[in-house]
Amino acid sequence: MGNIRVGIDVGGTFTDFTVLDDETGGMRHFKVSSTPHDPSEAIEIGIASFEERGLNASDVVHFGHGTTVATNMVIERRGGKTGLLTTEGFRDVLEIGRQTRPDLFDMSVRKPDPLVVRSLRLEVAERLGPDGEVIRPLDEAGVEQAAIRFKQDGVEAIAIGFLHSYRNAAHERRAAEIIRKHLPDVFISLSSDVLPEFREYERISTTVMNAYLMPRMDGYLDRFMKRSRAAGVDAKPYTIHSNGGLMSTETARDYPVRTCLSGPAAGVVGAALVGKAASFPNIITYDVGGTSTDVALIADGKPAYSADRDVAGYSIRCPMVDVSVIGAGGGSIAWLDDAGGLKVGPQSAAAVPGPAAYGKGGADATITDANIVLQRLNPVALLDGAMPVDREAALIAIGAVAEKIGRSVEDTAWGIIRIAVANMARAIRAVSMDKGHDLKQFALMAFGGAGPLHASLVAAETGLGTVIIPESPGTMCARGVLLSDVTRDFVSTQIKRAHGESWAEITTALAGLETQGRDWLEAETIPDEKRALQHIAEARYAGQNHEIRVEGILLSAEDFATRFGEAHRVVYGYALENHPVEIVNLRVQAIGHAGRPLRTVESATGTMANAMVGEREVYVGPEGGWQTMPVYKRSLMPQNEKFTGPAIIEELTSTAYLLPDQTGVVDAYGNIILSFVKDRA
After folding, report:
1. Omega into 379 within 30° of 0, i.e. cis?
2. Which of 72, 74, 66, 67 is nearest to 212 (CA)?
3. Within the chain, what is the greatest distance between any pair of CA atoms?
4. Distance between alpha carbon 264 and the CA centroid of its chain, in Å?
5. The whole model's pTM is what?
6. How would residue 158 be classed by pLDDT, with cut points 50, 70 and 90?
7. What positions does the domain Hydantoinase/oxoprolinase N-terminal occupy (predicted)?
């Protein structure tokens, strides 16, 4: 290989690698076991294996990775000891929040404890007005006292969030200077840098989480840099962030909160590029792992985005791919509720002890056990024979549930899968139909270890006519990292009507953001020919409380109002004529194009008959019972030869299950395209 690009996705069980040859377009995929104690160790192990795979680390010209380090840190509460300095009278904003409840009628629900204990939430006298005017000067002596208190308590990071600092950052920056004199090594996070937008709770909550993550993320990134250099990679490393773009390691150190959806966002980006190459611009992504199912919508080749997100019970706000996550994965446990009804998830057997069939001590019935009982999964071994499974253990686990509900083992296993599929279908409708999209216009792209196994059932449940199973579905997130652009959003809160004199002020603010974007691209050393700027406006009708996202160059107030009306109609089903539109936030996304178009892959020689490696009895349901199905090996399947279900397709990272009324074909990019024989709508 010549110049190569490497994408890495660090997961809980495996760390996935995708390697692209710049000259030939050839792509390779492989996995190494993850090292939870230090995720960077698995990356070093993977790079060290390059030589035995015919690769050379010194040939790497692009090196990106996605990671769940930040998310896991929040979930496990392993961040640094953090303090908060805020405007006098606002120390409890972090705890009061928005007074919303996850379940309105469940009085037992408890919010997680704030990331900053109350004794470390300190106030200082200062006040800015809504236009950034100084109402009360900063009490610098008060800041000094706070710095001394933080030093005495041994804080590792400090979040500074003053009221209306998004309009005027002077007080926050001066406070940071004073604190730095007393605590030169502490990590400091300013709300005017992290999230220069109005809505004080979201701004302070996001800034606090950013500060909380900085000490540990800095250590991880430092080890990541040292290990990759030691392994022979000289290319500048990048980390994918929640909006699906890549950012430099330096940016990731300063803004770790932007990596909270790093892994799932990478999968969506990869799916968008694969779908576009295969002429499917409208896609529902369906990523099923061991614990959860992640779904997202891609319309006209572009993922849907959201600004607000809940991470382990904490509110953060930053542009991110709109991924919906439910507790339904291969390890999700089947259980009975108080009324004796069968439920599946969100509890999971996880990697340890895992499903009963894995022989690691698990005894609960899981979705994986159900698939092994029905022999949709290989009842002898997975991972091309490298991982033995115990079907008898799965039968015992499923049988225990079957006895409680008075059904056969087969019907119980079938019921577990049907319940899981119904939950997954509900999540798909939530990101599509509930937001004004017609599911008939979309295809389902299934990836992750368990995605292809359930995709046909989910498609039948939702009325989706086409299923796409990409090449090496278990490493799609790593491929997404590999193909992502380098991006960063620059934002300015406006809250101005989109017309007349206000429009001139909006265009002036836009020009300022463009300058920031160009300066950042220059600092990131992105070549001129790969630079681009994109305009994004978050707007609403005057009188509304929440805004929607409108992308595209802002040419004129009239053009923008028209496009806003179209976007509003998609989201809410209507648009208002001659009603004033208000721009809340302006964004300019600076883009450094780092990816490249996908190329076609070589077809396997031979026919589908050659790809058939055996037959297996598979339970299709109470009506069809057990049926004999062909089992195909994916690597032997030729392109453009049609095949029909029912069938099983096995590969290293996944297994696919075809229904009796489906046909399939392998396209030029190595994707399996499945279609239903008749319209199921």
Report:
1. no
2. 74
3. 81
4. 2
5. 0.84
6. very high
7. 5-182
